[in-house]
């Protein structure tokens, strides 16, 4: 069996792979979110991250941080915003808190990653930090692992024209 996880789905794929590494012949991580954004999505994100536990309890559905705009591929961003199956709202307080907790878990337990995987990331990604992917690959214990940068690509490398 193979599994693919993109962005936040990459977190899920890593957790599944870590829980049952023998179940997977390989996992593809596409722009997987494995660390908090380097700039924490601006000053507002940095401040709110310090209060994430309280906010997630008091106002769990409050939108706390807007999603970055794909200004490198505006036609793809337009499709995303207009897609009735996608949510163009920003990060809500509870989701943000859970994301931060999951990032901490992934960073603290990278050595436990033993499943084979390929980690691909666009070099111009502003949603997740491509350098975080390189660090993840470097610290994972897997013997079959590779980081593949997609030069000039943004967060959704697979949709590049």
TrEMBL record:
SUPFAM superfamilies, alphabetized: alpha/beta-Hydrolases (SSF53474)
PANTHER family: PHOSPHOLIPASE-RELATED
Domain of life: Eukaryota
Protein name listed in UniProt: Serine aminopeptidase S33 domain-containing protein
Pfam family, one: Hydrolase_4
Annotated ranges, domain Serine aminopeptidase S33: 2-155
